[in-house]
Design a protein that fits this description.
The complex is a heterodimer of chains A (346) and B (508). Chain A contains 21 helices and no strands. With 346 residues, chain A is mainly alpha-helical. The C terminus of chain B is likely disordered. By secondary structure, chain B is of the alpha/beta class. In chain B, strand 1, helix 3 and strand 2 form a beta-alpha-beta unit. In chain B, the strands form 2 sheets. Chain B has a 10-stranded mixed sheet with strand order 3-4-5-2-1-6-11-8-12-7. A two-stranded antiparallel ribbon of chain B has the order 9-10. The longest helix of chain B has 51 residues. Classes of the chains: A mainly alpha (346), B alpha/beta (508). At the A-B interface, helix 1, helix 3, helix 6, helix 8 and helix 10 of A face helix 1, helix 2, helix 14 and helix 15 of B.
Chain lengths: 346, 508
């Protein structure tokens, strides 16, 4: 009984100590954010002194300083201001301490270093960031992507592009968002890579990146890949072209609507809807009679999205002789406009 | 005379040998749990860190979030369905839909839904791939574009899930029970492994005990530990099972138990294995095993993983009778699944699943109540008749009970040090006390319930039994409401709380 009591007492004390430490950390971060935010705003908007920012951060523990700064700075600071901030903070002892751990054996130290580099990183850090991009911890890699994208360092961005196809979909999507911070450099690099000779998996990633960036230059190259022999590539082309509202795009999409692969046809329908291509009404109405469920679904949604005569065509299909086209058009024509938008997006 | 002495010696030797075997068995099982605990520790820390880093949470609110269809079977849920569904429709997640299947409810579940969500009937424009009971109608909502309601003939929970699988549009499906409360950012947390560059087949999330918590608008606003011993000890049991029981398996590579009350699956894999089995009483455990088999047999390199963040809340039984039915059914489902998939046992073709996970479930979970009973009877009888030295009884007690208590305390400490859902010191103290109380009476009763499962399995019983609920946030007040009893042959019912028993480490 006594032993049991001692175990309970020790457990409870250990709990209290742990909670105290964790709560103290949280409180410090919140206090840091509260103290830093007005000072950072003053510096950003009114041209206040950077020394104020520096002093405030110096008053916090490295843990709290990093989190306060990262939480505010990654959301609010432009590239030019970020460079100023990097120069001002670079020699601070707490910054040096965190960056010294960038090659630590402990992943959370490397994570902190990568996170700090996304705020105070400079071009000379490119080597370190490149190493963190290849880190064995996926969390570190993810944060390093942010750090890489914040620098205008061409080799880093190219490294990211070259490894895109090795990543899973969610990570790719995350990378696209990061790469979009340097659209000029990335679009330029993409144009070089968007060639029919590129390996299919890599090419698909480049096409997706061009679509995510909505870069007209890169999407022009994507359009040229519409006749690529690999159906997977044509699927990606059709999907990416929904972001390319240029006169040359609808004819290419109409051509893809007649593709032998149903996935290409479905994506082409979706893109025609997204671009509100009224000129494709006839082809889309025909596609609502397609043998593939997805093509019928996407085409009916596209007609609803385009509206006007296309929507009237959709309503006519609700009484047509094809039962599958009739069901699909009845389903879609009953949706509210908000539902049409939402269902077309995903 | 000589013969009599020999027989006595023989009995003593047999009792000694059997007791020693049970002792070693217990020691090894608990040591395996200790190994799971050791493996779970760093992961728990990592997930806690990930969860507290806003950069990782924020990233999934972007276009990186995978599209998810939440599939919900409902049977006679008229009392709570409108609120439960509202909590599902207001999750903080960018891309998802909710497919609710009314499994031929005998009450007004469907009418409540039609009135509350302005449903209108739509043509059956869905791809049917699985064989199920007849679907009567599909409904969409004029106010909630995310919602699709399917009305079908009664066919059970698995059948409803299969209908929902067919009707789902997105590549991932989250199976959840109509009476499970999901935290607003639960999906964001559950999809975290996708950001970590893994190819994912399924992800399980933690389920907590909601009894005594304050629930407002379908959300847990104040987490409490029930002061009553039965839900209290189950709170500790759930913590132990989820915080290290399942997390430890992530590293061993044989995660076999994705809870039916809250589990995310890749839809195409589920469709390839023809969805949920309608003949089992623990469809979640069975489908997890079948999924692992499928991945191994088709050499698909995809992970079945588990994340420990507290994400969903469920009500646990507050009476012995209901608990008994639940545990008996869980164990019966475990036995049936082990028998059905016996081919996987010790089969190197199935990797860690065949060589570690399935043997573990056989020896440490399925057979545990038998061994524990033998151990208890032998020790008590042996000591009473002077066949065993008291030192044996003491060793047995230490290994079975104290080792178990230490593991439970470790789970409580892990929870308090990381996610810390229970904010009051009184709740922390209760958790510690319940960790001590659990082996005294509660364990033995669950052993009895699980023993009954063998008998009912042999008799070919496939019923789910009746479940009663108090309602969310009812607390210990005796005036709590109860749901109508569910007839045995309609398994989709509110009995849908289907954490399989195998999640709970025994202290045999």
């Amino acid at each position: 009984m006594m032993a049991g009591g001692i175990v309970v007492a020790i457990s409870f004390l250990a709990l209290i100590a742990l909670r105290w430490r964790i709560d103290a950390h949280h409180a410090e971060v919140e206090a840091g954010v509260a103290a830093l935010e007005p000072i950072l705003q003053r510096w950003l908007v009114l041209g206040g002194e950077i020394d104020e920012v520096r002093t405030t951060l110096r008053g916090l523990s490295p843990y709290a300083a990093l989190r306060s700064l990262a939480r505010l700075a990654t959301q609010q600071v432009t590239f030019e201001r970020q460079q100023l901030l990097a120069r001002a903070l670079r020699d601070e002892p707490w910054v040096k301490r965190i960056l010294r751990d960038a090659r630590s054996l402990l992943w959370w130290h490397r994570f902190d270093a990568a996170r700090l580099l996304s705020v105070v990183g400079r071009e000379e850090d490119a080597g370190l960031i490149a190493a963190l991009l290849d880190d064995r911890s996926p969390a570190v890699r993810l944060v390093a992507m942010d750090a890489a994208a914040r620098l205008k360092a061409r080799p880093l961005l190219q490294q990211e592009l070259d490894t895109l196809h090795l990543r899973q979909d969610a990570v790719q999507a995350y990378q696209f968002a990061a790469l979009a911070r340097q659209p000029g450099i990335v679009a330029e690099a993409l144009v070089d890579r968007l060639t029919p000779e590129a390996a299919t998996s890599a090419l698909n990633s480049y096409i997706d990146a061009a679509g995510a960036l909505a870069s007209p230059v890169a999407l022009d190259r994507v359009r040229e890949l519409a006749t690529h022999p690999a159906p997977e590539v044509r699927v990606h082309v059709a999907r990416a072209l929904r972001r390319h509202a240029e006169p040359g795009t609808p004819p290419v999409l109409v051509q893809l609507l007649a593709d032998a692969d149903w996935r290409v046809r479905a994506q082409a329908s979706r893109a025609l809807g997204a671009l509100r291509c009224g000129i494709a009404t006839k082809e889309l109405a025909q596609a609502v009679r397609d043998r593939s469920w997805w093509v019928r679904y996407r085409s009916a949604l596209a007609l609803a999205q385009i509206g006007g005569p296309a929507h009237e065509e959709l309503l006519r299909l609700t009484t047509c002789d094809d039962p599958m086209a009739r069901d699909m058009s009845t389903l879609v024509s009953g949706l509210s406009s908000a539902a049409v938008v939402e269902m077309s997006e995903v | 005379m000589y013969l009599q002495i020999d027989i006595e010696r023989l009995i003593v030797t047999a009792v000694h040998a059997a007791d020693l075997t049970v002792l070693w068995y217990t020691f090894l099982v608990n040591s395996f749990f200790a190994l799971l605990l050791i493996l779970a520790g760093p992961q728990l820390f990592a997930h806690w860190r990930f969860g507290s880093e806003d950069v990782l949470t924020r990233s999934l609110t972007s276009s990186a979030a995978p599209r998810v269809s939440i599939i919900v079977p409902a049977y006679n849920e008229a009392v709570s369905i409108v609120d439960s569904l509202r909590s599902l429709l207001t999750l903080r997640y960018p891309y998802y839909e909710v497919v609710l299947v009314n499994d031929g409810s005998k009450d007004d579940t469907l009418q409540h839904l039609i009135d509350a969500y302005d449903l209108y009937e739509v043509p059956p424009a869905v791809m049917r791939r699985l064989r199920t009971q007849k679907v009567r109608a599909y409904y969409r909502s004029k106010t909630w574009t995310k919602l699709l309601v399917v009305d079908k003939l009664n066919g059970g929970k698995a059948d409803s899930l299969n209908v929902a699988l067919d009707a789902a549009r997105f590549p991932f499906v989250l199976a959840c029970d109509a009476d499970t409360l999901i935290e607003p950012d639960a999906l964001l947390r559950l999809t975290r492994p996708f950001l970590f560059d893994q190819k994912i087949a399924a992800v399980g999330g933690t389920i907590r005990v909601v009894n005594s918590c304050t629930v407002r608008d379908g959300r847990v606003t104040d987490a409490r530990v029930d002061s009553r011993w039965l839900p209290g000890v189950q709170t500790v049991e759930y913590l132990r099972a989820f915080l290290f029981g399942r997390l430890g398996w992530n590293l061993l590579g044989g995660n076999l138990n994705i809870s039916g009350a809250f589990g995310l699956f890749r839809r195409d894999y589920l469709t390839e294995i023809l969805g949920y089995a309608t003949s089992t009483v623990t469809e979640d455990f069975e489908v997890s095993v079948r999924l692992q088999r499928h991945l191994k047999e088709d050499a698909i390199k995809a992970n079945v993983t588990f994340i420990p963040d507290p994400v969903a809340w469920t009500e646990v039984p507050t009476s012995m009778k209901v608990l008994g039915r639940q545990r008996e059914r869980w164990h019966r489902g475990l036995i049936a699944t082990m028998v059905t998939h016996r081919k996987v046992l010790f089969n190197p073709k199935y990797g860690a699943t065949g060589l570690i996970a399935m043997p573990y479930y056989l020896f440490c979970e399925m057979l545990a109540p038998l061994v524990e009973t033998i151990g208890l009877v032998l020790t008590l009888a042996g000591t009473a008749f002077g066949l065993l030295a008291p030192a044996y009884a003491v060793a047995f007690f230490v290994v079975t009970y104290l080792y178990g208590i230490v593991l439970s305390l470790a789970a409580v400490l892990m929870e308090e040090a990381t996610f810390h859902k229970y904010r009051r010191p009184a709740d922390s103290l209760r958790l510690i006390l319940f960790a001590f109380i659990e082996p005294l009476g509660y364990r033995q009763m669950t052993v009895w319930f699980r023993l009954k499962a063998f008998w009912r399995y042999v008799r070919g019983d496939h019923s789910w039994g009746r479940m009663q609920r108090e309602g969310f946030g009812a607390g210990p007040a005796p005036a709590a409401a109860s749901t109508p009893a569910v007839p045995a042959p309609t398994p989709a019912a509110t009995t849908a709380r289907s954490l399989t028993p195998v999640s709970v480490p025994p202290i045999s």
